[in-house]
Design a protein that fits this description.
Helix content of chain A: 40-55%
Strand order of the largest sheet of chain A: 3-2-1-4-12-11-5
Largest sheet of chain A: 7 strands, mixed
Radius of gyration of chain A: 21 Å
Number of strands of chain A: 12
Number of helices of chain A: 13
Oligomer: homodimer
Order of helices and strands of chain A: EHEHEHHEHEEEHEHEEHHHEEHHH
Low-confidence stretches of chain A: 344-348
Strand content of chain A: 15-25%
Shape of chain A: globular
Mean pLDDT of chain A: 91
Distance between the termini of chain A: 37 Å
């Protein structure tokens, strides 16, 4: 297996990507191609005492870099020689099985759609991060920012994509798919939710997915579903709201132990439990976010990814290749169409 | 000041309301009218050793009770003699200055709009709960569930309502008003966000509000704004997402101390800090949620409110009466209209 990695994306480029790639080649036995400015990558490796490229690691030179201020929709044209565009082209050409980048989310999504293409019949690619939950498991939240405005058909397809992904990655046989809403009853929400509810119910009745009804945001971190389907706007609000609350709560926990000498001692006694809590909040071990609906796996790593985070994003990409979600989607695309009576709401 | 309280709303009725009202009359020096089944309220007080109604507390009999399964829009017709409808009618008739209920949110919103009416010119009443933040302050999140589908004009009005409310209740001179969005740039979000952004910017330039731009959900619990403006759907998702994450994190904190004998001892050492964390998560001391845009203060108390929570909701109602937000709104309604060029998106 061959993973193409954008060496120049993210705050800690190229070090994080280069060293994370080395770790992946060594520990996972995958081949990694680092795409970016060759001399910078080599200089970085040298700084870390590595004089020759280890086995399984290659460099593919790309002169340019996508900037966070570039217009996402036009990087394919304006940044033809960037590490992101060159890497995605390699993926599309069969020179790799997956692509990982810590660069601009918008640019990655747009370029992946244009270069690697969506699965035939899939209307929109979506982002499906894994959220840790109280039950000790993880939940796929799809979409969470790729598509601010959605139709019921997009959400129906997100449900299928999330369900296949959960089956393969979380090893849940019949993932409970729920629709993010502001109440449990099927009359809740706006037109988008009501119409999507009807579509998901039909898909459930046909045995295609295991639809568990609406879910309120409160029950998502508590583990109420395996897959949470949302338009990109509210999904993003939920994801970021969870992040911010976790940070806030972590600061409160820190205060518990920093009050005085005795509470600091208590902190030492509790250090295992504290480490476990920190581990749950550490996105670095979760990996990045898979773009679902693209013909080949593309993983968006966190912008501030370090060596460890890049390693886990590459691991996640390798797992996605093995899972073969794109194939599942292609084979089942007929089940994801919208019945005629709802057609007026499904186009954009 | 006279606060009308729905004695029959919520899971712990009538005990929570009756006892909370007694506490409020005693500690705040306000008059309280308990609306509901007289004999049940008296029997409840008797159970708690209270034989005669204390000074400042009255009972207004209402035979019926709004049920959680009633259609919210029709309770005014179908439950004419319910404690909620009778209480709101008393408020409208000038027999009280504010109304508090732990009953159904939808029914309360609908009945308050029909009976007590919206401030002239206000398109929609909104719910504006106060969220504790990392900076130790609180943020008004408006709307968070009353209006699933919104127009830019609704959101403009929410911004004004939230800003007056924050000024009066949080004692912030120039509240930082921000628009909930999926990115900081003014090009982010859907049509609703882009058009609202333009309206809020104009209101800022005219000196009406202090618009701080877009805010991502992550920065809300971190204290990034004093007022967060959102459509009811995404506001509800954020509010409930914060709740669920806080519950999840609290369970993780508990685990830290429950590992073994020594960590339990450590928990004793840290009990002050733990109590402080618990206090921040305890909605009971925050009070309920004020419905903004109604001509008189109406407070929705949490459905599971106990005596303490009802006391604080009554306190909040009393503070809202003193703040006089409705008057501010009425005087400034001209500033909250939408310019002609955006008129096509402002109707419903």
């Amino acid at each position: 297996m061959r993973i193409v990695v954008d060496a120049m994306g993210g705050d800690l480029a190229p070090d994080a990507a280069a060293l994370g790639a080395l770790d992946a080649a060594e520990k996972l036995g995958v081949q990694v191609v680092l795409v970016g400015r060759g001399e910078q990558i080599l200089a970085c490796l040298k700084r870390h005492g590595i004089e020759t490229l280890p086995q399984g690691v290659e460099i593919a030179h790309a002169e340019d870099v996508v900037d966070m201020h570039d217009d996402p929709a036009s990087v394919v044209k304006t940044r033809k020689e960037s590490s992101m565009v060159v890497g995605l082209r390699m993926l599309a050409d069969g020179q790799g099985d997956a692509f990982v980048s810590a660069g601009s989310t918008g640019a990655l999504l747009s370029a992946a759609t244009l270069i690697v293409k969506r699965v035939r019949g899939i209307r929109r690619a979506a982002m499906g991060p894994l959220i840790p939950t109280k039950t000790g498991g993880r939940t796929v939240l799809i979409d969470c920012g790729a598509n601010a405005e959605c139709t019921p058909e997009f959400l129906l397809q997100f449900a299928f994509m999330g369900s296949y992904y959960a089956q393969k990655t979380l090893a849940v046989e019949r993932p409970r798919v729920a629709l993010l809403n502001i109440g449990a009853e099927d009359t809740k929400g706006g037109a988008l939710q009501k119409q999507t509810y009807a579509l998901l119910q039909k898909a459930n009745d046909a045995g295609y997915i295991n639809f568990a009804g609406n879910i309120e945001a409160r029950d998502v971190p508590l583990g109420g579903a395996d897959v949470v389907v949302a338009d990109g706007f509210s999904g993003n609000v939920l994801l970021k709201g969870i992040e911010g609350t976790a940070l806030f709560m972590a600061s409160l926990v820190k205060k518990i132990f920093m009050r005085n000498f005795f509470t600091k001692l208590a902190g030492l006694v509790c250090k295992q439990g504290i480490a476990k809590l920190k581990g749950m909040l550490d996105y670095r071990e979760t990996g990045g976010t898979l773009l679902l609906g693209i013909t080949k796996p593309v993983v968006k790593a966190h912008g501030s990814s370090d060596r460890l985070a890049m390693f886990h994003s590459i691991r996640q990409a390798a797992e996605a290749v093995e899972a073969g979600v794109a194939q599942d989607l292609a084979q089942n695309i007929d089940k994801m169409t919208v019945p005629k009576e709802l057609d007026h709401v499904s186009g954009t």
